[in-house]
Amino acid sequence: MSKSTGVMAHDIEMFGNSWMEAEPHQGRCPMVPSGFSSPCARVDAQVLLEVEEVCVMLLDAPFQSCHDFVSPLSFMASCSNDLCRSGPSSNVVCQVFSEYARACAHADHPLHDWREHVPLCVKQCPLELQYRECISCCPESCNLERACIDSKLACLDGCYCPDGLIYEDGSCVTPAECPCEYHGMIYPSGQMLQEECNNCTCVGGVWNCTDYSCPGECSVTGDMYFQSFDGRIFTFPATCQYVLAKSRNSGKFTITIQNAPCGANLDGACIQSVNLVVDEDPRTEITLSHIGEVFMAGQYRVSLPYSDDVLHVQELSSMFLQVRTAFGLRLQYSWAEFRLYVQVDEPWKDDTVGLCGTFNGNIQDDFLEAVVWFSCRSPSGMIESTPQLFGNTWKVSSACSLSLSSPQLDPCDTHQQAVIYASEMCDVLNQELFSACHEYLSPAPFHQQCRADTCKCGTPCFCSALAHYARHCRRFSVVIDFRSHVSDCAVTCPATMQYGTCVSSCQQQCSFLSLPPHCGEDCEEGCTCPLGSFYNHRTHTCVHRSECPCSFLGADYEPGEVIMTSAGVQLCLDGKLVSQTMEGDRLCPPGQMYQNCSEREKDFLPSRGVACERTCESYLLNITCSAHEPCVSGCACPLGCFTEAAEGYRQSMQHGARVVTEVDVTWFYMNCLADTCACSRGGDSECFCISLAAYAQRCCHEGIPVDWRTPSLCPYDCEFYNKVLGKGPFRLFTFRDQRTLLSASRSSGFVFLQQANSSTTTAAGILSQFMMTPGLSRTRPHDSSRVSFEAAERPNYFLHVSPSGQVRLAKWEESEAFWDGATFVIHRNTWILGYDSLESHSKPGFFLHATLPQLHLLKFRHSYSFRRASLFRLTGPSPDTPPSPRCQWRYDPCVSPCFKTCSDPLAEACTTIPRVEACLPVCAPHMVLDEVTRRCVHVEDCIKVPVIVPLTTVGTASVTSATSTNITASATPTEKPLLYHHHQQHRVPLILSSLSKPPRHTTSKPTFTSSTSPAVATTITKTTMQKISIPESVVTTTKELVTTTHPPVPASSESSLTTAPTGATPSVATTTLRPVVLQPITEAKQPLTDRVQVSTKLTTIAYTHNNIFYHCTDNHLPDNTQSSASISVHTPWETTSRSAEQSPSLTATPMRMCTPPYAEIIDECTKYICVNNQLVLFNKSQSCPFTAGPPNCGLLGYAVLVNGDKCCPKWDCPCRCSMFPDLNVITFDGNSFAIFKAASYIMTQLSNETLSVLVQECPADSESPLKWNFTHLCLVSLNITHKSNHVVINRLQRRLYVNSRYAKPRFKKHGFEIYDTGNMYLIRSPSGLKVQWFHSTGMMVIDTDSLSKKLPTMGLCGFCDGDPTNDLTLPNGTTLGVSEALFTDSWQVANTTGYISYSRLRDHNCSTSDCSHCLAMLENPSFTPCHVFVPPMTFCEVWVRDSEYVNNQCVALAAYVASCHKFNICIEWRSPDYCPFACSDTLQYQACLPACTSQSCPNHDFDSDPDHCSGLTEGCVCPEGTLLHRPYSALCIPHEKCACTDGSGVPRAHGEVWTASKDGCCMYRCDNDTIVPVEFNCSSTPAPVCHRAGEMIISMADDTSCCPRKICVCNQSLCDQLPIECKYEEKMVSYYRSDSCCPEHVCVCQPYGCPQLTCPFGMSVVSVSAPSRCCPNQTCECSCEKIISPKCGLGEAAQLDRTFLSDPQNQCACKRYKCVREAVCVFGERGVLRPGQTLVEHREDGLCSSRQCSRSLDPTSGFYILRTSTVNCSAHCQPNQIYVPPKDQSMCCGACKNISCLYQHENGTTALYKPGKSWVSSCMKFDCTDTLFGPTLISYAFSCPPFNETECMKIGGTVVSYMDGCCKTCKEDGKSCQKVTVRMTIRKNDCRSNRPVNIVSCDGKCPSASIYNYNINTYARFCKCCRETGLQRRSVQLYCSSNSTWVSYTIQEPTDCSCQWS
What we know:
Layout lengths: L11 H7 L26 H11 L17 H14 L5 H15 L23 E7 L18 E6 L5 E3 L2 E3 L6 E3 L2 E3 L4 E4 L2 E6 L2 E4 L6 E6 L3 E3 L5 E3 L5 E7 L5 E10 L5 E11 L7 E4 L4 E3 L3 E2 L4 E2 L3 E5 L5 E5 L3 E6 L4 E6 L7 E2 L33 H7 L17 H4 L4 H8 L8 H4 L5 H14 L1 H16 L23 E6 L7 H4 L9 E5 L4 E4 L4 E4 L5 E3 L2 E3 L4 E4 L2 E6 L2 E4 L13 E3 L20 H5 L13 E3 L9 H12 L7 H13 L6 H18 L17 H5 L3 E8 L5 E6 L5 E5 L10 E2 L2 E5 L11 E6 L5 E5 L5 E5 L4 H6 L2 E4 L9 E4 L5 E6 L2 E6 L4 H6 L2 E4 L8 E2 L3 E7 L20 E6 L6 E3 L4 E3 L19 E2 L19 E2 L10 E2 L15 E3 L12 E2 L4 E2 L5 E3 L3 E2 L10 E2 ...
């Protein structure tokens, strides 16, 4: 027993006391005394006897079996001691027995079930567990890593699972049910996790993972932080265009990024665009811009989604664009948050270069430099050392300057103002929000990037950094929705969308219901439609499937719309076209079968139908089916067959073009096939289009225009010419003075600033409107930020910056210098939202700077004033005229290309040019086309001045046609409006006269006269001309014109069209047209009367010329035909009409015949469609399933249109809750109750938003507007809480607080929009609530903005579900019946109750009580206009339930009028003696006020009036002659006070002067809307009297007075005394007297002016002064000691100048020394070497420089020549060696020391191996071994045993190589036929061998086969057996037991074995 001190103890008490420990803050236990007594010494004998009886059980079974292993005696002693203390009946004995059982278990003899013999010790285990005496100390566990280490225990006792089960997390599970652990998280069995591209599944506690090679990802985030494919992170100032990634060994793809400076100081870089080029083909270029637009080929903007054979571009979410390719490349671009991710699949490993690196897993070679980038496909460069050098090598644009390699500064050091914000905000990465991801991905580098980026560009970069880290965390299945916790990064989604951290909008778009989606598994954060809804790209909202439009052949169709296709009638249903063809209509021509898209038929192409019908032409032209067209059912040929459509194709072209002139199509058709198949000009489609265009051009020359192009078939784009014309016009207002705009002089081009007023746009010679065009500069033609400004009223004149920096309006010049000077870089939303800055393209860093009254070009300065002066707001010419693109170029398929140009101003030279297909300009009559700039200009503004040629007269001839038509119109010569009618996607202009009432007669025979004029050369192939006349009851519309088959009329003919009704004055309509026959189909609609005009006879004309292409059949209607619409049908010869009664339907027999597909559009809701060759009227309004009219919603207000469909409107009552001024609440569903307690109440509650109001006692000083409110309660404030944002509005104080900070309306932030109209507050919340709160009355109206989706609201306003019974719902969901008090109390905010009035509820209704008083009250004529909107009985039901309404007529009527105001019904019902509405002394009452506007001073601080706002209110307004200063101020002022507003917000009138300081000295005056300073009048301040000569009076500031203090000061310019003249050696000295400011002058001696004596060398001057003279006497005396010895340089020595000693000038015989050069070599400044000496220098890079002094003299320097030689000593070292300098410094080179072994492989490559490495190559073993000379390669050959390969093959063995293939051995499989030795005992009768004998036998496998023999027509069986090839005899000795003798016995054994035929 060792004590705690290490000393052995012999006494137990000493041993125990030494190990006693004291508990903290507790007393020490008493020491055990020496010789302590046993616990049983003080126990009674009886108790002792009972103790012995219990403890003696250890000597009996079941403990007896363990006595041989563990002695029970010590345990019995412990048992006695313990029981003597606790008593014999205590359960302490179980502890003793348990210890003995454990000791037995440790001795490997466990006592099982011993507790059953001691009932007191039986253990109870939890459910599923069993008590066991011996459980392994390391029981089987689901965690494989949980093992016992150094455990000396055999087992433990306790509760555990039964055999076969494992204890895991409190329960017993099978091994297969074990969970798995991943990064501290537990996942159940079967759970799947994704880590990058691999999936891991939990199987029995073990992760079973796939082993795929994951794609690589490169990212560009924030302010140019790059992460390569291999994970290398770097940054550099990348402000140019760079190659981000490129295929190394091919030109398959190239990705470039275009960056530009950005940030507050333009010291950052942002991605402007991302470009992808495939196969080095510019036509495949895809550009993603920084505003989310996508361009193809650098100029064509494409709508998304876009797909072709290689690319698929889609909007993955509201924040990300995605580009996916067919070759394993993906781009994901978040344009708003500066993030770009590029992903490449595994096949691109080691095949990429660029800023994204090499994608080979080695980050060391990511900085691979680009060499000869544009001339070589694979950059073969070197590895750069720094990101700057590396980035500059991949720079594309040479116009960008290289980024310097200077050290980069921490952005937080240069942006000190942002350090605190960046540090505090970015720390969220290290906090709990992102803590779940910390164990997978360290936030340290992301925090560093976040801090740097946030300092530089603020919140956008901060949110980008957080999103970048969250995206990386999502790869580890850690989803972090940080935007809901970080308010600065919150995403506000549109009303119908929702935000998600990993969403994809691909499959949730209406367009994908009819088109096959190309969706992958990619997802990103952003806003998408909720599950079950789809995005409608037309309304930009999420809708149900049933509200989705259908897409077909590039057009969109509304739900329920019927479309005619070649396959029959199709119905738009659930976003897809559904065939309406009946079973009987499915009969197909012979050889064709009907294909149903809803069924899968094996003989047809899958899912395409007739949309992919294959013809012989499509097969020959290799035209494949587009994957983006929906399936269309119809008749088609079976699979493998083609439609022979040559004739049908020709007819189809003729039918589509309405061709009547015979043009041989065969030649064109054959050339189309030949050219398209052998096309070499850009693809089959180009040659195909050229062939079709050739045929159409031939038809055009024949006078037959063919409008055959469509957006999907050979489109002809004129927008290329329109795009350069720009968008506008714009006016440029300055930020400093928001009424000052940029203007230019039309004559001089001078650019200046002027105030905008009514005369600005009308002043002659002033240009203030500009078109913003693409930049004229050619350096960056596709950069959308490069723009030019062209005068809108004077095209060809641009804002131009001259080389000197002057801004003028200059005419276009054909020079790059002009183009660059006229180009500006527009920086959108620079510094302030809504304002832009303009930087000169030709002078980078110089901005347009506005300083009244001029405009300058100044270099950027980091100052607030400069930024304000360089901001402009671009607006349209007026608020109602927004800027729009200019459209001057328009397409025409067949038009005369004759128009006025600069070179031909009169359009005379082009009259003979035939018609062509082209894009032609449409210029105003007074303008011409400038051929140089391709825009319409004034003649005098042409780039090339035209030469005017006199106009010649062209003769005309008259031709008359016999055809005629009927057009009802009247002629007005002065008015000729240009009428366009859209028909089949082309426009045809007709010049018609103004329309008037038609003649009374209905029968007419008009005449038609034909003539043409050379001024208009227009052929109308098919024109729809509308003629609108308005009689008293009928409106008639003329529909259609059809071309005749007359030959073309010469250009010299003229035509006129005249209509003369019988019996009336003829009305004439004249137009210049070619001969046509009009076949009008007219309809009339009668909305006002019950009688209509119905035509009973319709005559149509059929034209036939070789091919029948157009016809209509006569329709004869019976006399009793009823019609719901008036139809007036006119024929070319006669028109008859009669009247009929109106009827719901129209029946006509026979029906009009037609040829499908054919349709006639009547209006947007009605059309004729061709079904089964009959024209059927389809009216969408008549088939509408909804009620036509809106319902009466009573107290809720106007009904709302919820589906937006005018043809089939769906109306519903609005979700509108109202609180009247008397605090009566009308719920969303029309219930009513009154609030009678002063407290806070929750009106509306959503999941993330709560709207509450505060009701208080009206203030004591409140005026009479609140006196009629009997409850004395007022609605005081409104409180809206949305997530973490809090808005409070106090109506009485007219104050708005946002997050406890005062704010001014109009407030727009955090999703809120708050506007004070002057009469009410208009609030829109982020969740879609709209609140109107009126100032005067306090009435509040709460709406939901969403029309189609009702919000799940709760609160006092109830549910908005149309069910009034559930409005009284408590917060816990319980619905009450009638207990309104309990309901209002439940939505009362706790502990807010103040004043309590009495309940107003009356348990009555108009059925049980008398409401006649209410009805009589509302019968007043003043309320009659409102009865149709708010029926009196509806309001009286509310009235009868409210006691205050019953008792107080004024309160009730005020509530009724407030309901009428919702319908804009103005009711003037109050009077001074009846229910007066008293206002304060400064205001007056007005019965009807516009709720959305008020009379207030103009204010440019806020936007225009709010949208979607209407309604009236009553209240107090400013008296006549006054108006509100601001809508939110409630201050009435006279009109003249609107002129100015001072710094304190006080209005001032023109000319008014006021003080702006406490002392009253600072004064201002309002001068023409401008505040100017005014000087204080100090004319009365007395002036002092100056007494000294030369004094004057000046003013000095005085702190005690507003006027300056005047004092006398000296001014020597007033002195007239001239200075005196002094001698040469004298100087003038001035002094002053006390009585004068003028100086007095005297002359004094100046020794420095005396002449100086010059002495010879070695002598010095000695001066002696004389009293009578100013200058001293000077003499020369010897002074050799003052001669200075020269300082000689390196290699020179001082030598006595002996020549100077004999010099006559050396009169004093002084000694002088000179420097002479020694015979040495000079080594710079370091020293000299004697001839023959050598200096050796060693450098660290292994270079040795040896310098030796030669004996040759350098004539230039005079020293000996120093010869230098350099040797690269390290060049002789091998790659496995390092250079060691010599120890002897006089030696030049040292030695090369091995550091590894160099080995050259057989393929010529070399490798380096470290010491200890061994390998085998070419049967040689190589060891890299350390020796005295360093690592040395030792090789030795392998020694192989002899091997006979023939013998091995013979015995059926297999040749096996070992020792790395150098040695061979034979491996016997033991199965081939061979000799085997068998040991056996041979017996013969009673004789046997004494021991087993080795006998050779044959054993092994032999071949067998069963082969078909065609000769015997059966199978021939072959079999070989393993048998002997020879036998030999052998004698064996046998022992015979019968006679005890040995005998010789002969046996046979095989000599060899082989497989032989049996």
